[in-house]
Amino acid sequence: MKPTHRLGEAIDALFSRGAATSESYTRLLLQCVRSNDVIQAKRLHTHMDLYLYQPNDTFLQNRLLHLYGKSGNLSDARDLFDKMPQRDIFSWNAMLAAYSKSGKVEDLRAVFDQMSAHDAVSYNTVIAGFSGNDCSSQALEFFVRMQEEGFEPTDYTHVSALHACSQLLDIKRGKQIHGRIVATSLGENIFVWNALTNLYAKCGALDHARWLFDRMIHKNVVSWNSMISGYLQNGQPETCIKLFCDMQSLGLKPDQVTVSNILCAYFQCGRIDEACKTFSEIKEKDKICWTTMIVGCAQNGKEEDALLLFRKMLLENVRPDSFTISSVVSSCARLASLCQGQAVHGKAVILGVDNDLLVSSALVDMYSKCGETAYAWFVFKWMSTRNVVSWNSMIVGYAQNGKDLEALALYEEMLHENLKPDNITFVGVLSACMHAGLVERGEGYFHSISNIHGMSPTFDHYSCLINLLGRAGYMDKAVDLVNSMTFEPNCLIWSTLLSICRIRCDVNNGEMAARHLFELDPHNAGPYIMLSNIYAACGRWKDVASVRSLMKNNKIKKFAAYSWIEIDSQVHKFIAEDRTHSETEQIYEELNRLIKKLQESGFTPDTNLVLHDVVEEEKLDSISYHSEKLALAFSLIKKPHGRTPIRIMKNIRICGDCHVFMKFVSKIIGRPIILRDMNRFHHFVEGRCSCKDIW
User: Fold this and answer.
1) What is the mean pLDDT of residues 52-72?
2) Cβ 654 vs Cβ 628: under 8 Å
């Protein structure tokens, strides 16, 4: 018979017999304490109350208090404490321990203040309670009070105080405590050594941390974790991995914390295959390991893998938290996968984390990046709390989807709510001005970054304003802005200027911008292609040939332009004049039928946009079968009678002819088309585009 079963039977017998002696109560309660059986202890407590038993001292009640507190039965502990006719220091300390364990720091302090006298245990319990519940400043306050009252800190005290310093990144105070420990003999307490190592590692003093680590006589897993996480947090993932290998060579088994840190290190180094191998070797994966893998894949361009891992995590019955969900939602946003994003949103509702600030902000961003600003606004409107990230997601979402005035109105509302905008806020605001052609307003917002909000404009802000000025025809002002920058223009600035020159066929400034880009990023094909396109648009075919020859000599390869579309949760990818798809014949037949129908309605392909010196017929063939047109045709084959928008994604800017083509199609078929290119969203509805032909 199991001891717990025998204990239950003994207490059953007690109820059948009636009143019991002090010896019986003491013997049975000590058995409850030894077996940590709070259920039988509560039954025994009920029996005492039933027969009005009052012990002569506090021994039994203190043991019962301690058991209640340790098992998290705070209400039972408080009820017993309040009914005790007499209390001693052990009673008070037991209540302190109960509140400390439950994280009730306000009650913890209130009980401490009610005590007529304290001892070292009282202070140690309070300091540990504050330190373990993110109240580090209060922990250090009580550490000082303890010494002022004449109590000598123990190793246990020092560990809690050092943990508080680590949380505050207060290396100065930590060094003072370290000095005190050394003065009173550091000894071999592994917990103190680990706390010191962790302090220096978290504060970035890796040399100090490594010095202590190397001199530890008996290292445990916590020791290795402190050093490994220290290297990881301070941008040394390779050293982190090397230390992990050393740990394994000594035969020390890593725990879940170790594995999560190593997975992060592999991802930071771009060693994704090794991260996957390590993850696959873990027999029992906890929530942290799963989340680390999902986030790592998402941040390394492996969004599909992140979604696959999320599904496996759910099949393993591991409950994701808000951080996991937000990372998966962000993966859906980058893939522009509305279907999967909505499925994850539904899972968030089931888990009860959909109102979490992190998740809600990610949902706003996801719906915006899928072109569904109405859904994004619905989530944003019902958020119980919002931070600058939430507002940014909605502002940028509006700006990217052609709702420029709504974006600017929301920014003004954000200021009215006394929220301080950050750099991303102004990227959204300036983008809205650029798309709406609001030059004066854009310049005003740009200057407000430094004049009103005390920040310095970033490269992104300069890029937006250069774009705004150039598109509005103020090329001289755009060039002057580049030349007046307080820091050296980077690739983003020169690429922005070059793209504006391509739109306006400005050869002189285009050549200047291209020269800078050739120096800054000589292996990037983009500047060569844009300069070649400027020459081609001006009919300077010799210069086009010269640029292409330069690309060939420098072994620079042109990246492929492609579009993709999701049909029934399956992604289909197309390139221009693509004939690799299994349904190629049907796709071209449908596209040719569509072109003919559009031409009957007045559409004429713009062969001037074909930047090759070829005959008209070849130009027509070249421009008719761009990747987004093939994707559109495929969608119409698969969903010919749908009323929902057709969603197409493209990795580069949509050309002018395709833009006009999509407007005509949206009117002819009476169905919205949402196309996301590298610049923004285009909502084609009834022959009009949300970008107002500015993109």
Assistant:
1) 88
2) yes
**Residue 304, number of CB atoms within 10 A of its CB:** 14
Rounded to an integer, the average pLDDT of 8-19 is 83
Q: Under 8 Å CB-to-CB from 243, ≥6 apart: which residues?
A: 224, 227, 228, 231
Angstrom distances, CA of residue 621 to CA of 92, 595, 618: 87, 12, 5
Do residues 394 and 377 make contact, with C-beta atoms less than 8 angstroms apart? Answer: yes
Q: DSSP assignment, residue 489? A: -
Closest CA to 161 of 139, 133, 180: 139
The SS3 assignment for 20 reads: coil
- In contact, 254 and 284? CB cutoff 8 Å: no
**Alpha-carbon separation of residue 576 from 120, 208, 307, 551, 643 (angstroms):** 77, 58, 29, 21, 27
Burial class of residue 496 (count of CB atoms within 10 Å of its CB; 0-12, 13-18, 19+):
buried
Question: DSSP character for 608?
Answer: G
Where residue 192 falls (left for φ over 0; alpha for ψ -120 to 50; beta otherwise) is: alpha
256 near 286, Cβ under 8 Å?
yes
What does the block give as tokens for 136? 């580090």
**Mean pLDDT across 193-201:** 95
Classify strands 646-650 and 681-685 as parallel, antiparallel or unpaired. unpaired
pLDDT at 614 over 60: no
